[in-house]
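DM from R.C. (forwarded with permission)

"hey, sorry to bug you on a friday — could you get me a structure for this? deadline for the figure draft is monday and I only need the backbone to look sensible"
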Amino acid sequence: MKQVKFLLLPLFALVISFGVNAQDINAVVEQFNKGNDAFKAENYQQAIADLEAAYASAVAIADEEAAEAVEGIKTNCKNMIPFSYSSIAGSLASEGQYDEAIEYFNKSLAAAEKYENTDITEESVAEKINAVYSVQANNFAKNGEFDKAVDAITKTGDAESVDKIKKYIASTYLKEAQTAQRAKDYKTAVEKSQQAIGYNSESESAYLILGVSYSQLKQYKNAVDALEKCIALKESAQTYYYLAAAYQQSGNNAKACQNYKKVNDPKLGANAQAQMKIVCK
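My reply, with the result:
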């Protein structure tokens, strides 16, 4: 936003210069000066009311001798009114009143269009509104209001930001799943890992926890499905071992044998070899 220049008009000079219209012009100047004072005091709501009144009155004055002063008032109002709306929006955003801030940013654009102010554009307002949505989304996410966070960030139309928020939420659920698994609370581990996958379908760690937890709950078909998806995202000896064990427990020795053979980890290799003697026949 460009620096707004204020118009200072001495009332006595106007009275001397403009004769019979001095009273009308004097009233406009007084109204403008009230708005100007409110503006400088950052009382933007009052500034808007006074400046809009001053502008409307200035437009109604047709005296050619007063044209320069009237145009000066109009020009200042055109700059200051949209800026006032934008300033209110910024204050509301800093106070966490995000919906109200967005409303006032839109009002600043409407005022800019009405008063032909080119400093505030659709693009600049959209950028500010998207910034508000981003802050709002981050705060929702930190407070655990995940659906609201996704809804807010989606309004920006920025796919990268949406993905970032979703991955943050997924990581939060993943940590909870890991904690539950360590505590042998496998039902909760399943629930939390599924929630993580709901926000990040490419989280191999979430699929691994899901598969292992299903195995502990003796839900081997579900375990196999989850571990196969984990393998599709990232191959590892650990996942092949758990997958082979899930196949073995479900009675599919052929698949168990196939996956045990892919376990090339020293820590798991001996166990895999032992199980292969059972299933690879």
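R.C.: lifesaver. Confidence is low (pLDDT under 50) at residues 1-20.
me: no worries. The radius of gyration is 34 Å.
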